[in-house]
Amino acid sequence: MLFLVAALLLLGVLVGTAAHLPVPVTIIAAVAISCWLLVFFIRERRHHSDKTEGASR
């Protein structure tokens, strides 16, 4: 997942709207998106593990 974020950031810097933003703003946005993805991943992981624990009982 981290590779995907890095690849999209690189693509954005080269050809996307991030090319029109200063580098520090782009990095801050990338960190914010990465944190959001990490929180989403952790919440989904917990949600699915709770379901599988209940099903095995």
UniProtKB/TrEMBL annotation:
<feature type="transmembrane region" description="Helical">
    <location>
        <begin position="25"/>
        <end position="42"/>
    </location>
</feature>
<keyword id="KW-0812">Transmembrane</keyword>
<keyword id="KW-1133">Transmembrane helix</keyword>
<protein>
    <recommendedName>
        <fullName>Small hydrophobic membrane protein</fullName>
    </recommendedName>
</protein>
<keyword id="KW-0472">Membrane</keyword>
